[in-house]
Amino acid sequence: MAYDYDLFVIGAGSGGVRASRIAATHGARVGICEDFRVGGTCVIRGCVPKKLMVYASKFAHEFEDAVGFGWESARPPHSWPILRDNVAREVDRLNALYIRLLEGAGVTLHMGRGRLLDRHTVEVGERLVTADKILIATGGQPVVPPIPGHEFAITSNEAFHLPELPKRIAIVGGGYISVEFAGIFNGLGSHVDMVLRRDRVLRGFDEECRTFVHEALVHSGIKMRTEMEISRIEATTDAKGGKGPYRVHTPLGGMFETDLVMYATGRSPNTTGMGLEKVGVQLDKAGAVAVDEWSKTTADNIWAVGDVTDRIALTPVALMEGHCFADTEFGKKPRKADHRDVPSAVFCQPEMANVGLTEEEARLRLGELRVYTSAFTPMKYTIAGRKQRTFMKLIVEAATDKVVGVHMVGDDAAELVQGLAIAIKAGATKAQFDATVGIHPTAGEEFVTMRTARAEPTPKKAAAE
């Protein structure tokens, strides 16, 4: 049968765009569809606009720090509309850039939501297209629990387009999206309440690092409402009949007021209404597309990459998976995506980054460890007077001397750990770290000057029979 395309991609985010472009450079006839804008979560409503707003929020601290260096004490007023609109313009530019990248590679873009009618036919709007192979790359979306009043809450999608900066905001959730937006709104001048079901933020990250971040958030003035859940959100009106503050209620009868409620309690894969089950594509319990190590689904000619597979929900991982797929299926260069030792960062304030195993993971998987830590006040803040410290951690497998985990909380953590990720991927040992000359004075030199391992915990004695 003659198909319209050799490959049709549903979803023009990072993974889908990369896969389609690489497949086209290998000579494939490629089409792609998207129902909103090209670029996906990261470019349109995620990493990029969020990082720009992180930059904006940090200026408040820079103005404070400047006084210790002789600059006059002055904090100019901030304009939320200017920031919001400038960020939106940058997103517009990147959206146009992604479209040009597709055009330049010879990929045909179809605007509309894709739905599978059979294993080789996709309905996009009112048009039907056929393809030999199909790639699902539809990403994920934020989830708001169906509590009474949930319609009054926003998610990270809407946070970039607010008509005005809220004086008070309650951010529900303790993951990386929550702590990043807490830092943004706090830096821009909002009063921030964080509502967490657990005792600390960033579950799943290294325990010492998450504790360090949690304490820093408290010190920055963010109100941490730990071990709390929300039962309902109540809208009120002011004396003039206009919209008043929201009342946030808890199951035990507690209540507090805020001007905006933002949910960041998780994301779900975009698989609903796509016809996946009808064509034999199996989903897991979370609704994500189940794939093998080659990103292949349970349907012979259908693959999936990125957040819709719920493996590692990071843009560079989606790019890697999409590239591997295209090289394997169209470039005669079979290769699997390597999900080991993937570095990541949380752009909270202070920033956190890591690569490799947490200490808790290492203790479960490996034998004896050597753990090196360092906590200090950065040079800049000794003059500025800011009470912010940096924390660094190396986790070493004792039997091999191999560094299996690198963790940092502090300024430029992501930039530093990105470089160290190469060393971890290459299997560097602690002896090689020690043999590396540091750059002085920098924070990064601390990673190659930590010489004394922390005392290991005393093994618990077996209980008497």
- The CATH architecture designation of the largest domain is 3-Layer(bba) Sandwich
Question: With helices defined by DSSP (H or I, 4 residues minimum), what is the helix count?
Answer: 12
- Range of helix content: 25-40%
Structural class of the secondary structure composition?
alpha/beta
CATH topology name of the largest domain, in short, is: FAD/NAD(P)-binding domain
Shape: globular
Which oligomeric form is depicted? single chain
- Quantity of strands, as a count: 21
Largest sheet: 7 strands, mixed
Per CATH, the class of the largest domain reads Alpha Beta
Strand content: 15-25%
Q: Can you give the mean pLDDT?
A: 96
Please, how many domains? Answer: 3
Give structural notes.
With 465 residues, this protein is an alpha/beta fold. It has 3 domains: 5-142 and 268-330, FAD/NAD(P)-binding domain (3-Layer(bba) Sandwich); 150-265, FAD/NAD(P)-binding domain (3-Layer(bba) Sandwich); 350-448, FAD/NAD-linked reductase, C-terminal dimerisation domain (Enolase-like, domain 1, 2-Layer Sandwich), CATH 3.30.390.30. The chain is 30% helix and 23% strand. It is built from 12 helices and 21 strands. It has helices at 14-25, 40-45, 47-66, 80-105, 156-159, 176-188, 207-219, 315-330, 359-365, 379-384, 413-425, 430-434; strands spanning 5-10, 30-34, 108-111, 114-118, 121-124, 127-136, 140-142, 168-172, 191-195, 223-225, 232-237, 243-249, 255-258, 261-263, 267-269, 302-304, 344-346, 352-356, 369-376, 390-397, 402-409. The strands form 5 sheets. Strands 1, 2, 3, 4, 5, 6 and 16 form a 7-stranded mixed β-sheet that branches. A 5-stranded antiparallel β-sheet has the order 17-18-21-20-19, with helices on both faces. Strands 10-9-8-14 form a 4-stranded parallel β-sheet, covered by helices on one side. β12 and β13 (255-258) form a beta hairpin. It starts with a strand and ends in a 31-residue tail after the last helix. The mean pLDDT is 96.
